[in-house]
Amino acid sequence: MAPADHIHSAEDARRLARRRLPWMVFDYIDGAAGRETGLTRNRAALDALTLRPRILRDVSQRSLATTLFGATADRPFGIAPMGMCNLSCPGADLMLARLARDFKVPHGVSTVASTPLETIIEVAEGHAWFQIYFSGDGSGTFKLVERARDAGYETLVVTVDVPEVGRRPRELRRGFKMPFRIGPSQFVDFALHPRWSISTLLHGRPEMANFQMPGYSFDRTESRAKADWDTLARMRDMWPGKLVVKGVLDAEDALRLKNSGADAIQVSSHGARQLESAPTPVEALLAIREAVGPDYPLFFDSGLRSGEDALKLLVHGADFCFFGRILQFAMAAGGEVGLRQMWSVLSDEMSIAMAQTGMTGLQTA
């Protein structure tokens, strides 16, 4: 059997990825801040949400389609922005772009993607949103915003929850660096994972592709603490399309963002990778929905592991959800076939949960 044939859940994808990836790469993708108690609380909060089973309803015809910024999306979930995806599998960025194209869902393109932002939106046939970090004095940040606009991106995602990069001990112990560097311990790690190492060697070391030009530089550890509300106002003024603010966990901040011209808010704890003691995104979503009202667009990411997880969030106030880590694990486990298998699993999980709760479409959520 091919590796993808063994993916029946997100846990399967993670287990297979753990075998195949070097320890350094796996811990970079999988790790969370501090002692990882935030990750545990996030999972517990998701598990505590319930759905209401309904019986004797004709649910033989069901649709997972929804509307996102006025356009039809074939699924109510998309691809969260993730840095250096090609570490999980050579060509991962474009695998995700093709998936986004085929299902008409947004592919969140990270500032630190392994593939140039222009290439990704072309392959995704426009189904891509560009995610930006403010960094340093902001000069490079605004150049990238202009570049994304010129490339045809219509939605900008401004990530605001990383004024300083959180400490992730697993990652630090492995000596993970961006740009990617190989020292003695990494050499041993890679030697013990020859399949990944040979494949990566044949395709070239993953780089932060959006900075491979004169005048562009990015230091992952550089402070992002200078960003403030004036910074956001400047982005709003220069960006002609939709502006999504990602990394929001406070209802007061959410209401101010709504009043400041943000087109949508993405409730997120950055996958518990930044502030270990942050409130769970689940409880934040409930409070933010109450603050901004029923009609303002709210998106959700952080810790989703199944289609049923996503349905729970949609029922409890989110308009759209994003998956992250598990898609990287699926690609690490089985390449593009593994990714498609994971996507099919997520779709089946949601469709079955809809049937069991009497839903034929998401408009009834």
TrEMBL record:
Cofactor dependence: FMN
Binding site for glyoxylate: Y28, Y133, R168, H270, R273
One MF annotation (Gene Ontology) recorded for this entry: FMN binding
InterPro entries attached to this UniProt entry: Aldolase_TIM, Alpha-hydoxy_acid_DH_FMN, FMN-dep_DH, FMN_HAD
Keywords of this entry: Flavoprotein, FMN, Oxidoreductase
Ranges of residues in domain FMN hydroxy acid dehydrogenase: 2-365
Gene Ontology terms: biological process: aerobic respiration
One cellular component (GO) term of this entry: plasma membrane
Residues involved in FMN binding: 81-83, 110, 131, 159, 246, 268, 301-305, 324-325
CDD domains, per database record: alpha_hydroxyacid_oxid_FMN
Catalytic residues, chain numbering: H270
Family per similarity comment: Belongs to the FMN-dependent alpha-hydroxy acid dehydrogenase family.
Listed name of the protein: Membrane protein
Protein source organism: Marivita geojedonensis
Organism lineage: Bacteria, Pseudomonadati, Pseudomonadota, Alphaproteobacteria, Rhodobacterales
